[in-house]
Structures
1.
Amino acid sequence: MSAVNDRIRDLEIRHQVQVQRLGSGVLRRLIGLLDRADAEIVDKLLSRGATLKGSFTSVRLQKLLDAIREINQAAHVTVGKELRSDLLAIAKYEVGFQQRLIQSALPIAWDFVSPTAEMLKAAVTSRPFQGRLLKEWVTELSDAKARRLRDAIRLGVVQGETVDQIVRRARGTRALNYADGIMQIGRRGAEAMVRTAVAHTTTAARDELYAANDDLIAAEQWVSTLDTRTCPHCMGLDGQRFELGKGTRTPAHIGCRCIRVPVTKSWRELGFDIDELPPATRASMNGQVSATETYDSWLRKQPASTQNEALGPPRAALFRKGGMKVDSFTNWAGEELTLDQLRRLDEEAFAKAGIAA
Ligand SMILES: [Zn+2]
């Protein structure tokens, strides 16, 4: 029987791959909302006819800017509300999932204490990540985008550009897949914020769960398996042991994919007389942190189904053939997942492992 803390680490890495996909799913829906607002803003501009020339100081330009500001703000208010409710659902799911994950690795049944819904809500919405609260992140995104749009339109007007030219400045050009437009900056900002918010939420949920079960959970171990190549800071933290709730939190930076995995107490720390246990069981709860893993070496040891989930079937086949190191897919976040799809995948995995709900 492999050590409990090794099994927990493996399950946590698999789960973190899924959380990345979940983030992609949340992101797609929210970006859709922002894209619709952008289209509305472009329509507003185009409705001004061929030129805005001569209207720079006029009341008409101000009205146009006000209308655009309102469209932008309304879209971000909706994004903020949707994101908040998505995150609360994810936090609730994460707490239940983590209990089953840890239980599935333990050789004994454990009676977990669940944090209340109120505690989870407070942890997600009232705790800052990267220095800001969730609602401050959304307001900042909204304001920054409104400012960039306003400046771009004014600049275009001052330079005597046509409405088409101003729209190009805002939206970018088709030839460059709109990557050159200022609206794209807002999209990238939203993407980074949403991914970081999802990581913050799963961390917040775990913090509450571990704190409520500190009779079982002794510490946490930093695992940067998915992140080592992209972030030297996180590479340095890999494998380190932390007291519960102390030290650097994940996400450590925007886009951080690292996790802190729970380390359970040893039999002796739990008050068992280990001399009465069979030797294999005795070794399983040793209270030790796991060895560090790279994503490549971790994924090689996983069943084909997990490799398929992590990379998508075509890439996974390539990976298994051995021609491709997983490092080549470093930025690959997998196919998008909704929370319902994740729930089904987890059910299947637990069923396969013979763990009842
Ligand atoms: Zn990291």
Note: The longest helix spans residues 59-105.
2.
Amino acid sequence: MNNYDCIIIGGGIAGITASIYLKNANKNILLIEKSSMGGTLNKISEIHNYPGFSSISGPDLASNLYSQIKSLEVPILNDTVIKIEHQETKNVVYLKDKKLECKYLILATGKEARKLGLPLEDDLIGKGVSYCALCDGGFFKDKDVAVIGAGEAALNEALYLSNICHKVIIVNKYNEFKTETDILDKLKKKGNVLVLYNSLTTALKSKNSKLSSIIVKDEKEEQELEVSGIFVYIGSTPNIFSNLDFELDGKYLKVRENFETSIDSIYAIGDVITKKYYQLVNAASEGMEAAMDIIKRLNKE
Ligand SMILES: Cc1cc2nc3c(=O)[nH]c(=O)nc-3n(C[C@H](O)[C@H](O)[C@H](O)COP(=O)(O)OP(=O)(O)OC[C@H]3O[C@@H](n4cnc5c(N)ncnc54)[C@H](O)[C@@H]3O)c2cc1C
């Protein structure tokens, strides 16, 4: 059985960056990705806030990253990790038909935005349906949009969008918001924000393959709202391995300053950890930090 210095699970920007640093330090590593290299990048139509590119599509950035690790000869395995196990001196990674061992493990498995689960939703991602206002809000300048959600994230993003869009309609399925801040007061002072309570989004409609309206239902009636975009904030689920007893913050992995989890020799980076901002630059930077810490520890052995 091959005993790796480090196995990185997840080939998004966080895992790829970690693999670049570890490979440059000549460590024996393996990067495992179950789907497309680049991860979430492949779902982003355009990126305007990544240093070095005034604008680049997510798939193009993913392809650049892939070329970079190919030229560095980073060993890549296209497979799904189904379980991990921590033992005293090693970690074991289980794939469907084999297991691999390593000294250090980096979890860079990202998170999945919770979807509404409505017909057309997947087809309209990037064509009116978004899960990230910071990323996609600019495409809806002076247009009418809806924010769907009842928590702090939905309110924050609605505030952000209210400075860009013509009108922002917040669709909350409850009769109040889950917030402990004064953000709702701030939103009420905005002239272009409308809040609908006890309202459920029940359908999406499209014209020319783009979102054109949503159907919203409250206790009394059903109405059709014409919007160019919807921003869905009904939570997200980090991809953790729940068979291990990690310390969590909500559903997210808690890490120390060096990005090690509560379990010795298992690190976590990117969208799977608890943090303030979920962006590409900090995911990449966390990849570097975890890798450097592991390199230092390996060099001391
Ligand atoms: C629509 C959208 C637009 C965005 N726009 C921007 C933007 O403009 N600017 C910005 O800075 N940020 C943006 N973000 C946020 C940014 O994309 C993320 O913060 C970043 O991509 C997270 O990178 P990551 O490597 O942590 O996770 P991911 O890119 O999600 O990578 C995780 C990878 O792990 C793999 N994986 C998971 N489980 C397993 C397993 N068991 N076995 C093997 N592989 C596994 C997944 O397949 C995935 O490829 C956007 C996010 C979204 C959703």
Note: The CA atoms of residues 1 and 98 lie 10 Å apart.
3.
Amino acid sequence: MILQVLQVNTFYGSSHILQDVSFSVNSGEVVSLLGRNGVGKTTTLRSIMGLTPPRSGSILFKNKEIIGKPPYEAAWAGLAYMPDDLRIFPDLTCEENLDIAAKLSRHTGYWNRERVEELFPVLRARRKQKGLNLSGGEKKMLSLGRALMANPELILLDEPSEGLAPLVVGSLIQVIQEIKEKNVTILLADQNLKFCRRVCNRGYIVEKGRIVLEETMEGIWSNEEVIKRYLVL
Ligand SMILES: Nc1ncnc2c1ncn2[C@@H]1O[C@H](COP(=O)(O)OP(=O)(O)O)[C@@H](O)[C@H]1O
Ligand SMILES: [Mg+2]
């Protein structure tokens, strides 16, 4: 088990958002957090990363407690995070955005700029373009590329398929499969069930800050009642 989240409670001010959230991710898996808008998926990823420190619980990454540690320590431990707002540097070029991510990381490994550009040919084609001049899909690829440049063991992706044209979602599915083959474990939050079905092994359904179901993606896909109750608006 690479990640074990146990009874995590996270607040924004006095709002109790995550309520005893527990789940786990095995090494080599792609696992999704599924649920409607506002149920706490982003807060869960931010809690793991230390961006919104939980008030109680335990988060074990490779059997070491990381709860409440600052985000840079989570990164040192081997986690990387692609936030839903992507956070690329708008005034830096594509290649500078990638190079900086590698420089800030304490890890080296399979992923370097050459390999990331091989995975995302569009980033090679747009190498000298500033971040602000990229399309929404290209920004997403760059943000994911930046996460890989850190050579993490576990990568957290917030809404990877959101806002992408169907064709781009198709290439993202391939990319995630290739990343998985390189032994990077992935935990993602996404509302696109079709996309999750293609890339994930298992899913956890989140509702009002609680995990209400753990299932294989096929199990969720074929459970109309669960889809209606928790996933469709
Ligand atoms: N910075 C914040 N301050 C206060 N409340 C927040 C903040 N961010 C999110 N929330 C609230 O926390 C709940 C969970 O939000 P979020 O984790 O973003 O859900 P999801 O990612 O599933 O859409 C929502 O009710 C949202 O309004
Ligand atoms: Mg979210």
Note: The mean pLDDT is 96.
